Amino acid sequence: MKVTLLGTGTSYPDPNRVQSGILVEADSESILLDIGSGTLHRLTQLGKDLDAISSVFISHFHIDHCSDFLTLCQSIWLSGTRRVLDLYGTSFVREWLDSLHRAFPYLSEKVNVRPLVLHENETVQLEKLQISNTTTVHGKTDTRALRVESEGKIFVYSSDTAPCRELNVLAKKADVLVHECNWLDGEHPEGVHTTPSELARIVDEVAPGKLILTHLSPEVVRNKEEVLGIIGSSHETKVIMAEDLMSFEV
Ligand SMILES: [Zn+2]
Ligand SMILES: [Zn+2]
């Protein structure tokens, strides 16, 4: 499968990074994992046919992970196709979609979105892609980490999370783990995001082939060498910092 990191930033404005979004492609299947602000622009930069996107998985309903969904709907409407777009999310997904339809009633007439609840630990099969999930620890918001498996290869996306046993189990021996690194080490609210020192411990336990840091706040990016030094000093896993439009085969 081919993975493209569309957006690797956070809610803090960053001229070089848009918000969370990942494109996963395998054969004729193209899916999105999150669709934060700016990710539609990145897709158009790639020249990606938006009509080819069959499903959108939203890890949680924070604005930086879902705000371009409306833009995608508008683009599908303008393209004139009347196909079904599957929208996977936590149990809030139907209520969320209903609220969008109430706010923008013309969309419900023009775009056929099918809301699908992503049950905890459920596996969804889409052609050659198997997508499973687990809950993370992210404040009070129901949030899912996503694991995509295809032809024996494993890609895991942490979404937003503090260190969390369930995620470590989901990501065990993944070929590629894309994990958030929202904060530098220091004092932070409990149970929301992950720091470099915490990531060093996660990598020791999970042992992914490669760790790619994402959900990078400007201060984490400014301290790139220090961050990579903290994480990379204690194990063999290759650790890199993501950039928007970074693409790789898994
Ligand atoms: Zn969040
Ligand atoms: Zn976020």
What can you tell me about this protein's structure?
- This protein has 250 residues and is an alpha/beta fold.
- The protein has a single domain (2-249), classed as Ribonuclease Z/Hydroxyacylglutathione hydrolase-like (Metallo-beta-lactamase, Chain A, 4-Layer Sandwich), CATH 3.60.15.10.
- The protein has helices at residues 39-46, 63-66, 69-79, 93-103, 105-110, 165-170, 196-206, 218-222, 224-232, and strands at residues 2-7, 21-26, 29-35, 53-57, 84-89, 112-117, 123-126, 129-135, 144-150, 153-157, 176-180, 210-214, 238-241, 246-249.
- The strands form two sheets. The chain has a seven-stranded mixed β-sheet with strand order 6-5-4-3-2-1-14. A seven-stranded mixed β-sheet has the order 7-8-9-10-11-12-13.
- α7 links the parallel β11 and β12.
- α7 packs parallel to α9 (224-232).
- The mean pLDDT is 96.
- It binds zinc ion (2 copies).
- Residues 10, 20, 62, 64-65, 160, 215 line the site of one zinc ion (ZN).
Write a compact overview of the structure shown.
Helix content is 28%, strand content 31%. The protein has 250 residues and is α/β, with parallel strands linked by helices. Helix 7 (196-206) packs parallel to helix 9 (224-232).
